[in-house]
Amino acid sequence: MSALPATAAGGVRKRPSVLGTRRWVAAVFLLPALVLLGALVVYPIAFSVYRSLFDASGNGFVGLGNYGAMFSDDTIRTALKNNVIWVVVAPAVSTALGLIFAVLTERVRWGTAFKLVVFMPMAISMLAAGIIFRLVYDQDPQRGVANAVWVGVHDTFAEPAPFPGATPRPNADLRPSGGGSFTTRSAVRARAAASANLPLVAVRQDDVRDAERAAVARPRPGKITGTVWLDFTRGGGGRPNVIDGNEKALAGLTVQAVKGGQVVASATTAADGTYALPADKADGARLRLPAANFAAPYNGVDWVGPTLVTPAIIGSYVWMWAGFAMVLIAAGLAAVPRELLEAARVDGAGEWQVFRRITVPLLAPVLVVVLVTLMINVLKIFDLVYIIAPGSSLRSANVLALQLFQSSFGTDVDEGLGSAIAVFLLLLVLPVMYVNLRRIQKERRR
């Protein structure tokens, strides 16, 4: 065994460092990074903590007063509640969808193409995604994709009103009778020679564009007859309450005969607007046009209203980040030993048992990484909420990062309160980061 090299003084020479260089040289190279770290991270944190102890002007020391005001403010409490919803729901749903996509696409030929499509939203900025989903959630079904689909499904199972918004002619026998329906003031008689005609106005031209001309109902034995039509002649010249030659019939309307508040007979108008009720039941009854004839068309769901705005924005976040979760989980799934999966199948385990008892436990470290990463990400969510939520729903969709922006730079500027929110948000992120660092340390020890 050779002796260690001696120094000039007869001592033992120190071993070179791992990197083979002196420490002061390493410090010189690290100094620019440390300066930037101090200027961009350490100083802002220290200044935010200091500023949170002063009032809005920055001159009056209030101690922890801003933190007390933060928890007593209803707006900030709403933001905190929404942050809790975000942290619980968004990472869990994104991770679950990523796991499902990664497992299912492993066995299909076009799995790579599917992964590419799902991952593509990650290439879009939060700003662009917010603008996209602001249009997707538009209330007008002609513009908003979500409501276009929803209205299409609704109208498949629910017949829309034939003439939404139509009303009786002023001074006509028909009068509003509550709930959007119209009822005649006078009762109909079987022995009357005249037809029981019901004129309407305010019908949209698109609803009668292809309608037939209204016909005068002919008397029929044992029947009470009449006509429902659009009492309007284009260009003028028509006579009120009289069926003129070019006036349009209103087909598909329900006409009811009502006695004592009960419907005793009902009929539907034909293509020429005529109808017929049995005289033995309708004699002495009043005629009613129910509200279902005139109900406004279904206009979908108010996705960005105060009730659904937070779930709607979380949906847009999941659309963006489910692909990120899928790619990381798919990489972990590729490292899972296939022998274990095949051995379980040979032993008679079903696919669900293999997934639940083998695949998920082996992917647990990867799932934790994805979950923790997304939790840190959603604690800082700002862009999507600020862009998607309209002014009327912004308070209901509020989150801490948005409230930090509004308190620091909004109309009611209070930098002390804004700094307190920033410090509180940092404190919320620290436990999650600590868990992540502990996990990384454990991985290094293996």
From TrEMBL:
GO annotation, biological process: transmembrane transport
Location(s), subcellular: Cell membrane
Membrane topology type: Multi-pass membrane protein
Keyword Transmembrane helix (UniProt): yes
Main location: membrane
Membrane-spanning intervals of the chain: 24-46, 84-104, 116-137, 317-336, 362-389, 417-437
Keywords: Cell membrane, Membrane, Transmembrane, Transmembrane helix, Transport
Residues in ABC transmembrane type-1 domain copies: 80-436
Gene Ontology CC: plasma membrane
Family stated for the protein in its record: Belongs to the binding-protein-dependent transport system permease family.
Stated name of the protein: ABC transporter permease
Organism of derivation: Streptomyces gilvosporeus
